[in-house]
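Justification of computing resources. Each target in the renewal requires a structure prediction run like the one illustrated here; the chain below, 408 residues long, is used simply to show the kind of job we budget for.
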Amino acid sequence: MSRVSLSLATRMRAMPARLVVALLAFLLLGGAACKDADDETRTDSPSQSAASTPATSSAAETVNYIAPTPPASAALEQFIIECLRGVDVATAAAQAIANCPAPYPTKVQAEAAEGPLQLLLVDFVSSPERCAFTVSYLVWPDGAGWHARSMGQLLGGDMGTRLVRTLPLRSEDLAADGARSVVLPDGSLRLGVIHSGGECGSGAPQDGFILLGLDGDQWNKYWDSSGDERTRFGHTRMQFAGDGIDSLQLTGDSWFRPDPRRKVFHESNSGPHRYFEQTWVRSGDSYKLAAETANPTSYNTLVEFVYSLTIGDRIAAERWVVDSDLVNTAISLGLNQDPLDERWSGYCGNRYSDGSPCTVLINELGENNVIVTDRGVRLTMTQTGTDSLISAIEPCTYWYDDMGGHCD
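Resulting structure tokens:
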């Protein structure tokens, strides 16, 4: 695999005449709307003071940031084709893209797909990077040269979506490649692409997957993971399992999870979360969910227990305690939230990690709809086999100081 990242600061090299023509086409078709970032004074957040902006009068003037316009598609396609003239191998093509001066105001990322087909994934990302735009292309050769196909309609309208993932995977054991091609027994071509949809903003990863097929000179989308809500998680990561494109592994957390348990406690980007793993297997030109598991964390136990109490499922609640009498204790302390509307806060160990004890802050709506912590409950966890089970439940008094909130 070849991954190359090119920034605007890359040293300009001598260019052949045909490449000069391509860049002139870019300037005429798409670059006229873009201004040099160094010529603008921009304010990106309220935290920037007016004093940092040059004043032209007694009062400092602020020039708001204006998002650059995506370059014209024809100019970018011509740029790609001219850069790859004379190149016939995808890995070499990624390097060739890197050696071409980037069309202003973008940086270019390129990656060769794994497999028998010579395929190149190319992203043009706005620079300076403010999530203004990402324009992606799938590039492949034939006898007459290279084809460049815009992926805009196949990826959707998320301006943060990229073909080339740059956020690192957490485990070295995971397959890092994001695209694989295969030739099916009937001779048809398929390409599986794991793309990223969360590489700007908070930086929370949000991988997705599309299965493409080449019909003539057109790539058609056969399956899109975003079309199945069971793939909806927070901080989603995906990777190929085994060889080829027959199996996918997905990991994610409960932040965006569309199930009723998600409403038990308030969750934020940083946590706390339940964590899930899924396996998807290819069936023809689509994928089926083969397995799903929830990681056996203390927070998962806490969510399942409170949810079971709330819906009145005592048998399910007893699954999460070492002694069934603890269910009566929990009910007497009001741990059956009604309705489930994310008013309560729940966490285990440190607020953004896991462990014991777990704490539930029972919040109610006060005057002017202000949420007020009414009381708290502490639940001690005991590891039993692979599960964390509740071994003690007691009330606690919530208080707050300079060090944060406490429930003792």
